[in-house]
Amino acid sequence: MPDTTDADGLTVGQVSARLGVTVRALHHWDEIGLAQPSLRTAAGYRLYTTGDLERLHRVVVHRELGLGLDRIRTVLDDTADVLGALRAQRTQVAERIDRLERLGAGLDRMIEAHERGPLLTDEQQAAIFGPGWDPDGLARARLRYGDTTQWRQYAERSASRGPEAWQAVVDDMADLDRALGEAMDAGVPPGSPEANRLVERHREVFASYFPLTRQMQVCLGRMYEADAGFAAHYDGIRPGLAMWFRRIIDAGARAHGIDPDTATWDGGQEERR
């Protein structure tokens, strides 16, 4: 490589600034013979000519398209089938664009789910959740719980569900409600194996919305009994079911060393760890 003066080419620093690549990358490409400077100063510093810059530009473009350095070398140096190499590269670009578009669509669904929950029309919600479903309730829930971990988990599940998946969730909850009513009618006592199985089944079914620890379940049991809307739902299945449901949840928690009187929602976070 001949010696020259600084005026005959660009230094590594100048090329780095012009192309937006690091000096370290330029040194690496030089060392592996991918893109080498054609000139050196008398002091031994690298200098890049116009031809060197053209090759570097191509390296940068191919790297941004996702090609590895070995593949870039092949594309740049294979003069036998330049057109074929370009077509193959164009196919790879199209595939990458398709992947990015699908990723973008998934992100759009996630954003929408975070904003409003189930990605269903009002008509679909009424058909799946029943005529008493209040779509505005989701907006109120978003305002109240939108910054919580549970809303994020709920949104992640909602983003991947269509009408059929939501119908399956609703059916599972309805089956559980019927089983609770039948168990209460049969006089199943809190703390019994059958009652504890129902408590575990509730946790499993509820996980369709977000993971539920036993301490969190205790808090829900309190709400089922104390909240007028939830109490009306369960007592509409069987009079007194809301209180009985809370009692079997409390008994199930005790069986796992949890005091229902001191259980907290945040304590559920500790239980998960």
Radius of gyration: 32 Å
Number of extended strands: 3
Output the helix-strand order.
EHHEEHHHHHHHHHHHH
Number of helices: 14
- Structural class determined from secondary elements: mainly alpha
Helix content: 55-70%
Uncertain residue ranges: 1-7
Largest sheet: 3 strands, mixed
Rounded mean pLDDT is: 86
Strand order of the largest sheet: 1-2-3
Distance between the termini: 62 Å
Shape: elongated
Would you write up a description of this structure?
By secondary structure, the chain is mainly α. The protein has 14 helices and three strands. It has helices at residues 12-19, 23-31, 50-64, 69-77, 82-116, 122-129, 136-145, 149-159, 163-185, 193-206, 214-226, 228-237, 241-254, 265-272, and strands spanning 3-4, 39-41, 46-47. Strands 1-2-3 form a three-stranded mixed beta sheet, with no helix packed on it. Helix 5 (82-116) packs across helix 8, helix 10 (193-206) crosses helix 13 and helix 11 packs across helix 12 (228-237). The chain is elongated and about 95 Å long.
